[in-house]
Amino acid sequence: MRALIDELSALLGTSPLFLGDDISEKYYADWSGAEPRAPAALVKPNTTDQLSKVMALCHQHDQPVVVQGGLTGLAGGATPLDGELAISLERMQGIEEIDPIGMTLTALAGTPLQVLQEAAAEHDLFLPLDLGARGSCQIGGNVSTNAGGTEVIRYGMTRSLVLGLEAVLADGTVIDATNKMIKNNSGYDLKHLFIGSEGTLGIVTRVVLQLQPKAGSSHTALCGLNSYESATQLLVELKRSLGSGLTGFELMWDNYYNKVLETITSLTDPLEGTFPFYLLVEYKDNDAELGSERFESALFEQLESGVITNAVIAKSHQDADIFWQIRDGIGELLQVLGPVSNQDVSLPISEIGIFAKDLKERLVAKYPNISLLLFGHIGDNNLHAVAYTGLEEDKFKINHDIMLMIGEYSGAITAEHGIGVLKRDYLSQSRSESEITLMKTLKSAMDPKGILNPGRVIK
Questions:
Q1: Strand bridging mode 17-18 / 162-168
Q2: Which of 157, 316, 407, 422 could pair with 429 as two cysteines, CB 3.0-4.6 Å apart?
C-alpha cells in the first residue's frame, strides 16, 4: 500500500488524496447501518481521466477499491471493507448539456439528483426519477443501483431513463457509450452492464438521461380502502381511466400510516375515518381544468362502486405536500425506532397482500413484541417492510426470516436498493444458480483481479 500511496501522491498531488485522520467519518459508512470502517485511503478524482489513472495504478498494485457516491445506499455497498481504498465521485459533478429538442441531459456522475431535476425544470422539462434522498444521492449511484422511486409505475426504473453513459473499468480503461439516441441497435448495448451492477463491473462517470415534457398540472388524492383487493382493483380501474397519466400509486397499511401521524406531530390526518389501508394516488395532465375533471370523475366512479371507501383530493400544492409527507415519513421514523429490519422487496402484485398477512402472522408468532410497518409502490410490485422489537440482535434474525420468505414466494430480495453486502448471501433466493454463475463469469472477465467493490452483490 505504501508504494501505491507514493504513486498516487505523485499523480494527484495532495488535494484529491486523503490519509489517516484527514479522512472524515462521513466516508466510513453509507446509510445502511453496516459497520463503519475507515478506508485505507480516500481519493476524490476531479475528472474521468484522473479516475482512469487512479484505477490503472490500483489494478497494477492489486488494490481493492470501494466506490462512493452520495452514501445514501441501504445495502452496505459503499461502506469500506478492510484494506479498501475509497473513491468518492463527489467532485465529479456538473451538468454538461441539456438538449431541449432531443430532450436529453448529460451530467457527471457525482451530480446530486435534485440538481438535475431543477435544471430540467428550467427548460420546462421533467426528469422522471425521484426518491426521498434526492438532495443527497448522486446520479452515478442512482444508475449503478438502478434506483426506483415514486414515478416507476409510469416511467420505469432508472434503467429506462438512461440513453448512454461513460464508465471506467477496473484496469482504468474508459468506455465511452454516451449515446443520445433512443434507437441504436449497433451491437451490444454495453450500458446495461453497468446499470444496476453496483460498481462491481465498472465505475459510472458520466450519464445521458432522457427527459420528458413537464406536465401542465398534477392532481393528488388520499383514499381510504377496506382491503388489499380493493387496492389492486382500483389500480386496474385507474390505469384504464387515467392511462399513462397515472404516475403515483402509493399504498400504506394502517400500521405505517398511524405510526407516521403518531410520530410526526406536525402532521394531522387529512382523511375522516379510520381504514385498514390508505392510498396516495397521483395523476398528471397537460390541461389543468380537464385533468382535474378527469381525475375527480375517475375517483368518484370508484367511490360510487364501493372500491374506495373515502377520499380527499388535494386542493393546493400544500395539501399534496402533506399527503406526500405522510408517505415519506419513513425517513423520520427510522431516526426514532431504534434497530429495525428495513426491507425493500418485490412480489407479484396479486400476492403482496397475501405475503403481508403471512409475514405478520409468522413474525408475531416468533417475536411476540414485534412491530411491523408496511407500505410501498405496489403498482410496480414494490413492498417496504419495517420490523422491530427494540433489540439489535433481533434485527438480523428478522432480516433472515424475511429473505427466506421472499424465496418461498419467488419474489425479489431487493426492489430498488441493491444487494450490496447486506443481502449478498441471499441472492440465491431470487436468482438461479445459472444466473449467478453467469454474473461471476462477467465479473471475472471485466475485473479479473476482483478489485472493484469486492464482496458486493456476489461472493
A1: unpaired
A2: 407
pLDDT per residue as tens digits for the range 290-344: 999 999 999 999 999 999 999 999 999 999 999 999 999 999 999 999 999 999 9
Placement of cell 451492477 in the chain: 197
Q: Residue 117 and residue 150: Cα distance in Å, rounded?
A: 14
Question: pLDDT for 25-52, tens place per residue?
Answer: 999 999 888 999 999 999 999 999 999 9
Note whether 364 and 370 are within 8 A (CB). Answer: yes
Q: How far apart are CA 187 and CA 193, in angstroms?
A: 14
Rounded to an integer, what distance in angstroms lies between the CA atom of residue 244 and that of residue 153?
Answer: 9
What does the pLDDT read at residue 375? 97
Q: Note the pLDDT of residue 150.
A: 85
By DSSP bridging, strand 65-68 and strand 104-108 are: unpaired
Neighbour order of strands in the sheet with 104-108: 95-99, 104-108, 203-210, 162-168, 174-177
State the Cα–Cα distance between residues 448 and 200, nearest whole angstrom. Answer: 11
How far is C-alpha 328 from the geometric centre of its chain's CA atoms?
14
Residue 272 DSSP code: S
φ/ψ of residue 243, rounded to 5? 60, -140
Q: Which three cell numbers stand for residue 94?
A: 456538473
Residue of 411, 310, 293 whose CA lies nearest to 352: 411
* Contacts with 28 (C-beta within 8 Å, 6 or more apart), sequence order: 36, 37, 38, 39, 79, 80
Predicted TM-score of the model (pTM): 0.93
Task: Determine contact, residues 117/130, Cβ cutoff 8 Å.
Answer: yes
